[in-house]
Each structure stands twice: as C-alpha cells, then as structure tokens.
Amino acid sequence: MHRARYPDAPGSRGSGGHTTHFVRRPVREQMLESIPAVVVGITLLLVGSGLLFWNEGRAVQTSRSLDEGYNAVIRVASANIIHEENNHKLVQVWGTLATSPVLTDDTYGVEISAVRMKRRVQMYQWIEEESSMGSEETPGMPTDTSFSYSFAWRDKVVDSSSFNIPWGHNNPTSIPVPTIIQVSETSKVGAYHLSPAIKERFTEFISFSGDEQPEGDDIKLHGGMYYITRDIYNPDIGDLRIQFYFAGRAGEVVSIVGQQVGETLHPYLTSNGRELLIVHMGKRTVEEMFSSEHAQNRFLTWSLRVGGWFLMFIGLTCVTNIVNSLVVCSPLMRDVVALGLGSANLTLSMSTSLIIVGGAWAVYRPGLALLILIVAALPFLRAAARHSSSEGFSRRANGFRGSP
Questions:
Q1: How many alpha carbons lie under 13 Å from residue 120 in its C-beta half-sphere?
Q2: What's the predicted TM-score (pTM) here?
Q3: Is the separation of the CB atoms in 142 and 133 below 8 Å?
C-alpha cells in the first residue's frame, strides 16, 4: 500500500516531536498504474486456463482410448502365424525384429540392419556470448554490455551476420553434409509387417560407428565420430564431425499393440477418434504395456497441470493490485486469505485450476470430478462459515439477540 507522508501535519505523533499524516492513494490511481501488469496477467491467465482445459481434455480422451483398447485387444500367441479372424482388430504381438535391406552410408563405410539409422552432422562455428555488468554503487546507471566470441560444434548454422561484431567472426552459410534419417524398406516382427507409423515410433537412438578408417585424408575416425578436418585437436571454422545412430536393431525383441490389416500392423482408431499404437522394446504383457501408457499419461498430465497452475498464479500476481482491492472490499475474500494459505493469488489459482480439472472429468469419472470440485470449494466454504460465525458474534457483541 502506497502512503504519502507529511511531517508537522495534524495526525499521529512522529519522532522528534513531528506529527505524521498517512493518506491512502485512490484505488483508481493504483489501477491505472498497474494496467501493463494487468494486461500481462490476463494474458497469462487465459494461456494457463487454456492449457489446463486442453490438457484435461487430452488426458480424458487418452485414458478412454487406453481403456477401450485394453478391453478390445487380442493377445496373439505367436507372431509367426497371421490369423485371418483378427483382421481389422486390435492385437498384441511380440517377437524378433527383422529388417531389409541393410542401411548403409557408403561415404563413411557404415552399415547396419535396423529400422532407422540417423546421420548427425555438426559444424565448427563461431558463437557469440553476451554478458551485462551493472555498478552496485550507481544502480540507476545503465548496465555495461560486453560480447565475447568462442568456437563450438553446432547442429545448425549460426548466423554470424547478426553478431554485434560480425567482422572477423564469419561462419559458413550452410552445412555441406546434411543430417538425415534412413528408414528400412521392410521391417517385420515374425510374419507381421510394420507400417510407416510404427517405424516412426523407434526413437531411442544409440550411437555406433564403423570398424574401418574411411578413404581419404580429410576424413578421420576418432572416438566413434568421423571428422572432416586437417587436425582433430585443432579444427578450423567450417570443419565437420559426423556421428551415426541406430534405432530398432534387427534381432532385438519388440512388443507391439496395433490394428492388424492383412499382414501389416497399423495404428488403431478408437471410438473417440484417437489413434492407439503402443511400441515397447523387449517382451511385454498386455497389462504391462497399458499400465506403462497410463503412467506416461498421468506424468504428462500432472506436468502440464503444474505448468498451467503456475501460469495462472503468475497471472494473478501480475494483477495483484486488483486482487488486493477485492480483498479490501470483500469480507469473504479477507476470510479466504486468513485461512493461512499465504495469499489470495495462491488460493484463487489453485481453486480455479481444480475447477477446470474437475469439470473436464465430470462426464468420464463423475465421482473423481465431484471430489476435485469439493476440494476446490473448500477454502471458500470454510471462509463463508467463518464469516457467518464472525458476523453472528459481532451482532451479539453489539447487544442484538435473536428470538428465544
């Protein structure tokens, strides 16, 4: 709260025989000064609310799809036999990966039998680092900004033309060798072919390298990486280093839940329009696979919930002047803050987040939704009860009596 202080004015006694008079600044003046913060706060509130609402809808639909899939999935005893009666149905199969042809990179003499092979290319480039320094003795003075330049390996081109000092720090405008991912033409688990959508699920890349030194003096193999440079230990700007990775190596065991369409496994479309496809490395049971997916869904849901709540809390903090004005004007809000939760911002952001979460689950799991909504309303219900009891006590203290 901002107050103006006037020495020697009528009012309370100050030090040294002076009197001090406190004047409350008009609420309108305070609110006008807080307009920029209010705009930012409202934006964060809208983004946080939208994130929470979208996240809960996503979580509900994902959970429903998993439950529907678990109830409909057919366990295939052997991946070596395709059963016609399972055509267009959701099945779970497991077996050994087989791929063809062998994925190769002739330039560097690399080859591997896998679902996917990635060639990662990095270039040695100038990078700019900015640092600011302010003086503690003169806090009102502008800060000094300095720029330093060093070398580093980067996956993408660093635009040196945007440097504060571009001369003498020139980077190439492109990387001559591109980063690419090769995908096997044919990938199978037993007799089942894998669709392109399933191949894309192999994302756990593991690095590897060839056994032989590539031809050419400008390509050197060191530490599992291929360097295009004259000196590995003293590279020049524009030099390259290349590393290879594989995902889904032939011979590894994989478990898949997907729709059988002829001899190929595809994503399964559930009744709510969401695709269901589960790919796990190793031999897994149906229960293990669906339990793992539920756990991942819960982790993502709670992560986004915390993120949405935090955005709403920051948004309410930005409009704290308006919140404080409401607290001053509303006895009920004062009682909410008096619950010991720390601040109205914290209480309102938590309750609002819970209301959005509970509303999203109302149709799918009404019992859980009701419990969440009750928890969201607890601060206000408790505050209302305390407010009513305090009003009753105040009437009795002033000599008012109810009917006998």
A1: 14
A2: 0.71
A3: no
